[in-house]
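We read letters as residues; the fold follows as tokens. Both lines appear below.
***
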Amino acid sequence: MTVMQGSTVQLDPDRGFGVPTDAMGILGLVFAVALFPLGIVFSALGLRNTRRDGTRGRGLAVAGMVVALLQVAGIAALLVAAAVGP
């Protein structure tokens, strides 16, 4: 059995265990798949919160924004293709 010396866990009494993940980033990714307008809004809020508060979840917010914007681009391409016609 080995004993590790000098390894202590420092807890911030205000935050508990570590830095929390921002809920808006998670919601942004979830809604980006189902309802892309809400995905854009929640992802933007998640990006703002992670920058302002230092919470985790920036990658989730970026992923939600990318997925939602890809859906917007896909719908725009379909509308242009329908307008041009065969």
